[in-house]
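Write out the 3D structure for:
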Amino acid sequence: MELRDYVRILLRRGWIVVLVAVIAAISAFLFSRFLVTPEYRSEVLLSVLSTRPGDYGSNLGVKAVVNNFAETIRQDDELAAVVADRTRLDLPPDAIKGRIQVDPDELNVTLRIRATDSDPIIAKQIAQTYAQAFVEARDVLNQKMNQQDRVEVHIIRNARDGERFKPQTKINTLAGAVLGALLGLLVVFALEYAAAGTIRGPQDIERYIGVNVLGAIPPATAAAGRGSPLNRQATDARATAAR
C-alpha cells in the first residue's frame, strides 16, 4: 500500500481511532479517580555527621556507613516494632517495613525516609516516628563508643502531611488515550484487511487492475424496469395471449 492509501483509510475511518481513544481515556480517568484507593507519601530527611568533621578519613567512613544505616532502617524488626507501638498501628514489623522506603545519598551524606499509606496523616506519623526512633537508637549506641568513633544522625527536615502520589490520574488518562488510539488503528486496519477483496465501485477496479473504467453495464433489473422496451413487449404479449 502507498502512503495515499493509508491517508485515504484514515480519512474514511479515522473517527474509529478518535472514538476508541476517547473511550479509553475516559475509562482510565474514571478508574484512577474513583476505583483506585489513593496512596500518600511523606518523607523525613536525616543528616549523618562525624564527630571529627575535619578528619578526611573519618568523613570517608561516614559516607560508607550511610548505606549501612539505610539497610538497618529497612530491615530492623525492633525498630519497626517501636514505630508500630508509638503510632498505635496494629501491624506486624514486616507490614510496617513494607510501608517505608529509605534512600541513602553518599554525596550529601543524608538519608531520606519515605512512608506510604492511604491516610496522609498516618504516612506522616510513620515517617517521622521512624526517623526519631532511629536517631534515638543511634544516640544510645554513641554513648557506648569513644568520642572519636561516634557517628551522629540528626533530623534536618521533618515530615509533612502526606502528598498524593498514586494513582497519577493525568498520566493514566494520557496513557489511556495513547493506548486507545493504537487499538483504534488496529481495528481500522483489521476492517480494511477484512474488506480488501470487496469491490465497491469503479475506483476499486481501477486500483486493482491498473486501467481506467470507461463505462458500466447497469443491472438487468434496472434495464427491465417499468417503462423500458422489454417491459412493454412483455406486457403486449400477455395481452395478446389473453384475447
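The chain has three domains: 3-36+168-194, 39-164, 202-242.
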